[in-house]
């Protein structure tokens, strides 16, 4: 790739994959909430793309379970209209659509015992017709308030059962979307309800950030490159910055967002997962439980915020006009922006601040991690002015958009005089490999069918993350965690967010629109 004097070559290694993904098992995917927004925008487009690439199992079917009345033809037409808007590859490939449509089934019913018995009979027939061997993947794309009724209906009808290695039966797996609770107490209640019915290895708590190619690449980048891992510690790194900025506001989701807020929506799950990938120790292997063990140690090592520390280390904000959004309370105290400073109390990271910010209505859409290295220990140049112009090296892991990696360093400008210039080496995933970066749900749905839990949140990690976040939310809700700052839409957030770093003599990476 040639761009602005930069030439990047990729050299794919020959031979077998280091970790082979494996073929997904034959199965029936039962989708609750099939006519909802998530299904239309993400799940069916992911299934369509997998069908286009012929990555779905040969023996596969989708049963859409809906409480609203639809006949099958109406439902298929609705899915197709959604794909015309949201599918990754356009125009829609008709042959792929015909293949996928032939595997789409529908059932209308409530969450009552009779409906689940009818569902069981329907699934028995599907298994015979499509040859799915009785394997069933239940996807709850529904509000968390429906989970108890769904769990009870599925288990009491015999559709969902705890797997026992000594008894050979078709597998049962359950996928649930975030939020995994609203706080530590509700997260524990949800986990108790789940593990009362099935085993932890059957539960797939989906966090689409973990399905992003660039998040997965953090582990390969760290542990397959000897030049970076030795520098990945407190001796060499000054601070770490994790940003998830969105240009859009709440976009018609005012009621949901006003009950959730930016900390529950982004920090507790997505950004803490990214932080864990960046901060974890090398796992014993790339096996799913070894990776999840190391991530959980990071959550356990997050320094708790107690007493007045929330007001000192956390800034909350609300974009101007948020309270006028449809569905938002006129006196809402829900933050749409948060910036915080935290530490990970481990040998590797002791004393290195991690700054996290997330917000809506900002100047740019960007999710990235910036690793800021320490300044040079001794300036060799003859004036203090020159030395002040030296910028520390920054390694940037861009998660979205324009997925890739950037590395900044200092260089001499050509000429007789010694003049310095900052240089950024930039690697762009899709351009360098000349192939599009797949959507997160494509990978995650396949992993559910494979039974690979690596990219899914485990019970202990969910509860550890909530144990750290809940006191922060409670302090902010009570008014003891500092004021609610306002900020203009299209800005970088409230001034107090910049002041959080300025107190330490640092600044955020600029959000250039």
Structural class: alpha/beta
Distance N to C terminus: 25 Å
| Number of distinct beta strands | 17
Biggest beta sheet attributes: 9 strands, mixed
State the helical fraction: 25-40%
Alpha carbon gyration radius: 24 Å
Strand content: 15-25%
Mean pLDDT: 86
Low-confidence stretches: 1-5
Number of helices, where a helix is a run of at least 4 consecutive DSSP H or I residues: 15
Strand order, sheet with most strands: 16-15-14-13-9-12-11-10-17
Sum up the overall morphology in one term: globular
If you had to describe this structure to a student in words, what would you say it looks like?
- With 513 residues, this protein is α/β, with parallel strands linked by helices.
- Helices cover 36% and strands 20% of the residues.
- It contains 15 helices and 17 strands.
- The strands form three sheets. A nine-stranded mixed β-sheet has the order 16-15-14-13-9-12-11-10-17, sandwiched between helices. A six-stranded parallel β-sheet has the order 5-4-3-6-7-8, sandwiched between helices. The protein has a two-stranded antiparallel sheet with strand order 1-2.
- Strand 3, helix 1 and strand 4 form a beta-alpha-beta unit.
- The longest helix has 26 residues, at 254-279.
- The model is unreliable at 1-5 (pLDDT under 50).
């Amino acid at each position: 790739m040639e761009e602005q004097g930069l030439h990047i070559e990729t050299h794919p290694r020959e031979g077998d994959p280091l970790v082979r993904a494996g073929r997904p098992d034959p199965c029936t995917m039962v989708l609750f909430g099939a006519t909802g927004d998530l299904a239309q925008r993400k799940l069916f487009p992911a299934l369509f793309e997998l069908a286009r690439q012929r990555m779905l199992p040969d023996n596969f079917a989708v049963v859409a379970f809906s409480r609203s009345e639809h006949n099958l033809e109406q439902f298929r037409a609705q899915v197709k209209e959604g794909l015309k808007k949201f599918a990754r590859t356009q125009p829609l490939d008709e042959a792929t659509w015909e293949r996928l449509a032939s595997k789409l089934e529908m059932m209308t019913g409530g969450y009552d015992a009779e409906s689940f018995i009818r569902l069981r009979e329907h699934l028995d027939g599907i298994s015979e017709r499509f040859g799915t061997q009785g394997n069933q993947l239940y996807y709850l794309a529904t509000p968390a308030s429906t989970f108890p009724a769904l769990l009870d209906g599925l288990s009491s009808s015999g559709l969902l059962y705890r797997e026992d290695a000594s008894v050979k039966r078709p597998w049962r797996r359950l996928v649930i979307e975030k939020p995994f609770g609203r706080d530590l107490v509700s997260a524990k209640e949800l986990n108790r309800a789940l593990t009362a019915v099935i085993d932890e290895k059957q539960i797939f708590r989906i966090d689409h950030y973990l399905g992003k190619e660039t998040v997965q690449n953090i582990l390969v980048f760290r542990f397959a490159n000897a030049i970076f891992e030795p520098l990945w510690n407190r001796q060499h790194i000054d601070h770490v910055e994790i940003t998830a900025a969105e240009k859009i506001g709440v976009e018609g989701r005012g009621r949901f967002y006003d009950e959730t807020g930016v900390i529950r929506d982004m920090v507790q799950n997505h950004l803490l997962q990214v932080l864990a990938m960046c901060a974890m120790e090398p796992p014993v292997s790339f096996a799913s439980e070894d990776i999840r063990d190391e991530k959980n140690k990071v959550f356990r090592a997050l320094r708790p915020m107690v007493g007045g520390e929330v007001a000192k280390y956390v800034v909350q904000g609300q974009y101007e006009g948020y309270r006028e959004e449809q569905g938002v309370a006129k006196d809402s105290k829900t933050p749409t922006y948060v910036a915080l400073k935290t530490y990970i109390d481990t040998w590797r990271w002791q004393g290195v601040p991690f700054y996290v910010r997330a917000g809506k209505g900002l100047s740019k859409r960007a999710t990235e991690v910036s690793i800021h290295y320490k300044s040079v220990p001794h300036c060799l140049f003859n004036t203090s002015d020159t030395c002040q112009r030296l910028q520390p090296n920054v390694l940037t892991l861009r998660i979205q958009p324009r997925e890739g990696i950037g590395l900044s360093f200092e260089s001499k400008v050509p000429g007789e005089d010694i003049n310095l210039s900052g240089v950024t080496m930039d690697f762009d995933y899709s351009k360098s490999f000349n192939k599009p970066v797949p959507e997160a749900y494509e990978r995650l749905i396949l992993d559910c069918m494979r039974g690979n839990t690596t990219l899914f949140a485990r019970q202990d990690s969910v509860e550890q993350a909530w144990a750290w976040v809940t006191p922060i939310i409670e302090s902010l809700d009570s008014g003891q965690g500092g004021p609610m700052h306002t900020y203009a839409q299209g800005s970088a957030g409230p001034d107090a967010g910049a002041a959080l770093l300025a107190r330490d003599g640092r600044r955020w990476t600029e959000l250039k629109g």
